[in-house]
Amino acid sequence: MSAARPLTALRTTAVVVALPLLLTACGYGSESTDDGKQAAVAAGAKKLSADEVKIGYFPNLTHATALVGVQEGLLQKELGGTTIKAATFNAGPSEIEALNAGSIDIGWIGPSPSINGYTKSNGKNLRIISGSASGGVKLVVNPKKIKSLDDVKGKKIATPQLGNTQDVAFLNWIAEKGWKVDAQSGQGDVSVVRTDNKVTPDAYKSGSIDGAWVPEPTASKLVAEGGKVLLDESTLWPDNKFVITNIIVSQKFLKEHPDVVEAVLRGSVKTNEWINANPEKAKASANAALEKLSGKALPADVIDAAWKSITFLDDPLASTLNTEAEHAVKAGLLEKPDLKDIYDLAPLNKVLKAAGKTTVDAAGLGAE
Question: What pLDDT score does 28 carry?
Answer without folding.
Answer: 28
